[in-house]
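Hi L.,

You mentioned the student needs an example of a multi-chain input paired with its predicted structure. This one should do, with 1564 residues in total across all chains.
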Amino acid sequence: ASTDATAAAGDKKVYNVVSLVNGNLGDKSFFDSAEAGLKALQDAGRITYKTIEMGGTDEDQPKWLETLYEVAEAGEYDLIICGTYQMPDYLKEVATAYPDQKFLIYDDTSYVGANANVVNISYKQNDMGYLIGVYAAAMTSETSVQNMNAEKVVGFVGGGDFPVINDFLIGFLEGAKATDPEVKVDTRYVGSFVDTATAKEMALSMINDNKADIIWGVAGLSGNGAAEAALETGKAWFIGVDSDQEQTFGPELAGITLTSGLKNVGTSIIWIFDEWDAGRTYWGQLVNLGLTEGGVGIVTDKNFANVAPKAVQDKVLAAEAAIKDGTIVVPTAIGDDTNAVVALRDAMQP
Amino acid sequence: MWDQLLSTILKEEFLFSVIRITAPILFAALGAVVASKAGVTNIGLEGIMMISALFGVLFSYWTQSWLVGVLGAMIVGILLALMMGFFALKLKTDIILAGIAVNMMGAGGTIFLLYMFTGMRGNTGSLMSPNILIPTVNIPLIKDIPILGDILSGHAILTYLAFLFVWLMWILLYRTPLGLNIRAVGENANAASSVGVSVLKIKYIALALSGALAGFGGAFMSMYYSQGWNSGMVAGRGFIALAAQAMGRGEPVGAMFSSLLFGLAQALRTKVSGLQGVSSYLVSSIPYVVTILGLVIYAASTIKRVKKARAEHSKAKA
Amino acid sequence: MKDKRMLGFELVRGAAAILLALAVGTIFIFLSSDEPFTALRYLLIGPLISIKGGLASFNTQGFYTILAAMIPTIFTGLAVCVMFSSNQFNLAGEGVVLTGGFVAALAGIYLHMNSGLHAVVCILIAAVIGGIIMLVPALLKVKLGASEMVTSLMLNYVCMYIVLHYLNFVFADRSKGSTQTFPFAETARIGSLVPGGSKLSWGFVAALVFVVIVALFMYRTRWGYAIRMIGINESFSKYSGMKVGGTIVLSQVIGGMLAGIGGSVEVLGRYSTFLWKELPGYGWTGVTIAILAKNNPLLVPLAAFFIAYLNKGCQLMATYCDVPSEMIDIIQAAIFLFFAAEQFLAGYRQKIVVKNTRADLAKVAAGAEGGAE
Amino acid sequence: MEHNQNDLVVQMKGITKVYPNGIAANQGVDFSVRRGEIHALMGENGAGKSTLMKILFGLEQPTEGEIIVNGAKASFGSPTAAIAHGIGMVHQHFMLVPSLTVAENIVLGMVPKKSGMFIDFKKAIELTNEYAEKFNLAVNPVAKVADIPVGMKQKVEILKALIRGAKILILDEPTAVLTTQETAELFRELVHLKEQGYTIIFISHKLNEIKQITDRMTIMRGGKSMGVYETASITEQEISSLMVGRDVILDVQKDTAVPTDVVLRVRNLQYTNEWNKKMLDGVSFDVRKGEILGVAGVEGNGQRELVDMLFDLREPDSGTAAVNGKDVIHASQAKIRKLGVSLVPEDRMTYGIADAATIEENIISDRFNEKRFNNGPLFNMKAIHEESDRLIKDYTVLCKSRKQKVKMLSGGNIQKVVVAREFSSDPTLIIADQPTRGIDVGATEFIRKKLVDLSRAGTAVLLVSADLNEVMELSDSLIVLYGGKIAAYFEDTSQLDDVMMGEYMLGLKKQSAEEIGRVCHEG
Ligand SMILES: Nc1ncnc2c1ncn2[C@@H]1O[C@H](COP(=O)(O)OP(=O)(O)OP(=O)(O)O)[C@@H](O)[C@H]1O
Ligand SMILES: Nc1ncnc2c1ncn2[C@@H]1O[C@H](COP(=O)(O)OP(=O)(O)OP(=O)(O)O)[C@@H](O)[C@H]1O
Ligand SMILES: [Mg+2]
Ligand SMILES: [Mg+2]
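Structure written out for the whole complex:
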């Protein structure tokens, strides 16, 4: 065994990784994104990995902790990966119980380095939301563009009224307000990430009652309902989230998708391994990946390039630059005691 | 704020959406009606809708025909209902448990089936394209009537079918021998079997009808309401349908009005959620609160009516 | 004596049902897995036996996990037993578990008390709230004749949205990315019986105590008796002079209290903050358990164990093999269907019955002849 | 005689039936019926009569044995097959769908159609009328079955069988619910059917009826056949002893009553039912301590309504009723019981028992709240066991143990459980509504005797019975209900004869208000 170890030490180490999904793959969002990143790493021969789907319902919650304990106890893995804002408390318990085991948690800001064996990656979805807000606000009165009306109303269909979603929202609202103070944002929550039909009803109401012509869906699969509403009425555009929905949609829906806000979980995981191999580690730290690090971003090829007038594109790119260089600091809804997002949301509701 | 709400409600589009929201619930509610008339509580409607919604998409994708998709969904609905029937009627599994089992299959089993058939996870992505969606139709004369035309015309074929089924269901139950058998079996199975009516057969038929209707409801969900299937998309509509059935006292027309009431509440919720400063959570509970209230008012009025009738009746005698 | 012989049959029947359901599951496993035998092994014996390097050993942690998973479902199972016993098809257990857990958590956060007492007070509050919630379907049924099945189904959603509203807008810990309350006081927590991730807490002991209490209540008290009689024949009970309406309400309230306790024990015993964001599903599991237990409280732990075991087995299979985790639902569905199938193997049963009866008759005849001589 | 007397239309050979609960209801029974005869099937409750007939009708499958119909071996997997062989059955308990009309019930399963798929309601009504006329069984085809009296229900049942072309009619205790007149009418019809070549299998507990119309009889005891007899050549005493294995004394011995204070006082009850029929019209009477007041009358003349009023199952439009001065009209059943009122209900399966509960649980249903059965919050199981064992013994309930489910008992034993409870609660007033309907001779005798004993011990008894012999024999005094009014009051029943009673019951005669008023013992 010792000869193996020295031999391996010569090469780059092949890590054995387990990824715990507290939901299911196929979300076309961060779990799939994480999976894609791991797959790429495995294909490159840098890791071996196993993904465990633990299910995402409240009834599945006991499994999350149990499974964490199980994989930590197994001691076979160089790194245990999990994600989402629902995991930190469980992780804290297990990471404390197994101080020699390394963990990574993504898409969470609340863990914040309680254990020296955990690296915590988060994504500045508020920054990304800001760019989308700028884009939408700039577009909504561009009547030269097909389907756009003069009314300055855009829509936001959220999966539920809670901090992560509202972190997207607050960026969106701020971006829109900064671009055009007259813009109204019709915000509604489906209360479910799977009820496409209700999301569709809400989007239809936004389009028909309030003349919204751009709708950002931040509601998992429910978001598709909003896209369909836009397509069917022929009076609005859709903006996707998490992954590039112009690629995942069929041609019709992709055709009315202006862009997508990206949360690059996979990229960030690859980035961590790059850093690790390069000798830079972040154990015990929160790594908040923003636009600069490629943790978040917006899709700028396809419809963004083809549909948006140059002036609009420039505004978005300028905002991106400003955020990157720190000129613009986007507030966050996470850990915000004042709940500023609610006041802003109500103020901008048409 | 209220005038804003009012202005959105006083639109044709609002009533149009009420009808659209009602349709899938109505299908399932009629399914609940026919099953309960035969003495079977079909609590598995939710699961049947989920599974047939999935197969509706798959069939229409495979054949590139919406019609085949809808029929496929219907057949899957029938098969599931018959399976429930086999266990509940033949093997005497508690019907509620059989229903829960079907709902389980609808929740997780669908994801597994989708994976088995297509390798996709969680949703059917772009399998469903607009050209194989259930088409909408404009009704020739009605569409030109102001207001009414905007409310009644332009719905999906299946929407009209749902309301047509209310009438057909009534005919079936009250004007055909099969309906007579169904009612007899549901009310007194011994009586039916003593005259040579096969209770089992009738219950199977009623369940199959129930499954077919839920299948239509499922197809409506994934092939019109949404373009494609995703896990959890039926989101409790099968249960709501049970409520509609009960609130409508198990009658087709009653179930239709209850379904409409629910559709109305749900449409209202959509509108109210667009107002400033409302809690999306409390707003989301509107349809359910309305259903309970509807049930209460209905029950209370029934009691009152009975009491009043009695009072008048004694007065007349005095 | 005859009962004993039939018991043997029931065991055989149960085993056969499980085997058949597993056979159905196996078909799917073979359809979707490259290592079906390993998958089956995990499913069947994995929960209790772990095999490492060819050595089988008792999976203690797995066992604790199963016991811990039984805690909420024993309570909801008991709740459903009591509610169904009065022939009320009340499905509001879901909503009550959620609400019970929520109010217990709030009491755990905002009340300050001594260890021990604090947790008990939290649970009591949950019980009271649970009972009050169940008053809704119960009174609507008794006073107005509104179908309790429907009102309770709808009530679940109402409970959920109200809890979520307060959770989000009033009690959320805003420093967290996910919606949850502040952690409850140490004094309110229900301690673990064993270390590790199983979260097997004293709640398990409480659950077993409640099994005995509920069984005593149902079979050894006048209220339980009245509940059962009303469930069997309401007209008869009324005619006998029982207070039918009141007793029905009582049974629903007790069911609500049990479900509320279940929710609170689960939350206080397993978590450190309240973090449910949807109906947790234990109410439905309770229905299944009550049906498997045939409304007999004493059989509830058995049924709960069975369900928990199955869940764990499916979970292991999904974790360590290539069978998608959703396979669980199909296997479970099949097991439920067969296990609860009363007529399953009825032909075989009838043969046993006939044989037994023949033997009895023969014995009686022989006795009579013997006596005559 | 055109047909061959020895032509056996039905033969059942070696029939054994073991129910899933392990009860061997039939044990190697041989049974055969000749074409064109009326054949009685007799036996105590639980002897296996209904089971044997259900097998013949395809409702139950025999564990063993064979059935030969019209000389050919037959096997009936379902009633459909039996019906196809010309067998029709009128069940002991009605098999009707209450929400459907009479005509719909009659044509159920063979509905006349129009346009190939719709029900031809007109045809159904015509058909009903046609058969009703042909067989002289008057029914109202458009009435809902829920709304019609039992007598008509019985006719509907018979029509159901006839319309399906039944040539072999099984009647399982058809007269149990019928009035004397209706029974007589039915018998005429049966004889008429017999003359037309129909074969009738007739189950009844009433010996006089059997003697009256049957040709032969098969007697069953304990699941076995006790043999076949020519009716003409066997006495009632012989039948009884074959059925129960001993001689039965049918006359109840009783001393003259010494009634004292009024216990139940009913004044001017008025009740109009949902269909605006006046069911009670100024009914007033008293029942005194120590007497049995009988209520005679053709069924449907207000007896059921009267009992319902007294036990809070219905509310009258006006009028009062009080037990020992306390109002019972507006009291709940619980309160009424507290006043010491017991009821042996007419419909024992609905009101009298909880079928899935044990005998013990059924016995304590009215007294489980009492102190002696409770230790604090818990039941005093010992006391409860003692009570139930005592009553099971006292009332000779035939069972394996107090833990046996009531639904496993035969009808007669179920009634004994009801009676044991109702008679043993130390009541001040017993309302006995058809206390011996449909149960065997042994049980009947037992219950009647108990009733007399109780009244002699000082209980007031209100006896409602459609069995004229029963009321005349048991009652000390008696009222006759006709059209919701009291048509007659007889202070002393010893001089009554059925002819005169019949005249009052049929409304041919009516006493003066003064004579009737004597039933109110004012002052
Ligand atoms: N469906 C059944 N399941 C189990 N046991 C039954 C069933 N039907 C009847 N029995 C039992 O079989 C025995 C015979 O019953 P059966 O109904 O044939 O008697 P019967 O002669 O018709 O009595 P009765 O005069 O009371 O109608 C009884 O002990 C009864 O309890
Ligand atoms: N499925 C069953 N399981 C157990 N016992 C049954 C079942 N069905 C009927 N019985 C019982 O068997 C007995 C015989 O039934 P049946 O229908 O012949 O009428 P019965 O009530 O016995 O007749 P009677 O009124 O003449 O006494 C009844 O006491 C009934 O309760
Ligand atoms: Mg615009
Ligand atoms: Mg019988």
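You could point out the following to them. Residues D 49-50, 92, 172 surround magnesium ion (ligand 4) (CB under 6 Å). The first strand of chain A starts at residue 15 and ends at 21.

Best wishes,
N.
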